[in-house]
Amino acid sequence: MQAVTTISSTCRQQLIDYALQQLPEEACGLLLAPIGSDTITVMQPIANRHHSRVYAFTFDAEQWVHYYFHASKLNLSVVGIFHSHPHEQPLPSEADMNGFFDQHMLYAIIGFNQKESPQIRFYRRSKNRFIDFPLVLT
Ligand SMILES: [Zn+2]
Q1: CB-based neighbours (< 5 A) of ligand 1, an ion
Q2: Does residue 1 lie in a domain region?
Q3: Which structural domain, as residue segments, surrounds residue 123?
Q4: How many structural domains does the chain have?
Q5: Fewer CB within 10 Å, N or C, the chain?
Q6: If you measure from the C-alpha of residue 85 to the centroid of ligand 1, how many angstroms do you get, rounded to a whole number?
Q7: Ligand 1 centroid distance, CA of 124 (Å)
Q8: Matching InterPro entries, A to Z (predicted)?
Q9: What is the whole-number distance in angstroms between the Cα of residue 92 and the centre of ligand 1?
Q10: pLDDT tens, 13-70?
Q11: What is d(CA 55, CA 9) in angstroms, rounded to the nearest whole number?
């Protein structure tokens, strides 16, 4: 599995912009890096199909599968997933703890508890907790 340590500033800004557009609903999608690279350069939005999108997210299953496999055609690999917290800090919620688990994935949360200065935090997951995993900005 690819060891990602860095995110491009363009991609970071795209995450914030996209999550802002989706307010008041949660935004979600994939984080991608060129195969063999340690840098996330692409974010791929996935439609949120949760019945209560203001409070939670569920990937559109068809899009998830499509973009997961489409990535390899672009020489990209899926290295993480992102979602936003429209009103909360970018800290993993209980729902996040019970959500999709892959110890190789990076988890990005965009938090809008302060609307003027949205924050992104990155995590990796072990079985029962999220571990802070700050990325270098390039
Ligand atoms: Zn969450």
Answers
A1: 93, 96
A2: no
A3: 6-137
A4: 1
A5: N
A6: 6
A7: 14
A8: JAB_dom_prok, JAMM/MPN+_dom, MPN, VirAsm_ModProt
A9: 5
A10: 999 999 999 999 999 999 999 999 999 999 999 999 999 999 899 999 999 999 999 9
A11: 27
Which residues are registered as beta bridge partners of 82? 29, 108
Q: How far is the CA of 84 from the centre of ligand 1 (A)?
A: 6
Q: Is the dihedral of CA 40, 43, 46, 48 positive or negative?
A: positive
Residue found by looking up tokens 């990796």 in the block: 124
Output the domain CATH number for residue 75: 3.40.140.10
CA of 88 to the centre of ligand 1 (A): 9
Phi, psi of 68 (to 5 degrees): -60, -45
Dmax over CA atoms of the chain, in Å, equals 38
CA 82 to ligand 1 center in whole angstroms: 9
Span 84-103, pLDDT tens digits: 999 999 999 988 988 888 88
Q: For residue 130, report the distance from its CA to the centre of ligand 1, in Å.
A: 11
Residue with tokens 């390899």: 72
Give me the count of residues in the chain: 138
pLDDT at 98 (0 to 100)? 87
Which tokens is 90 given? 């970018």
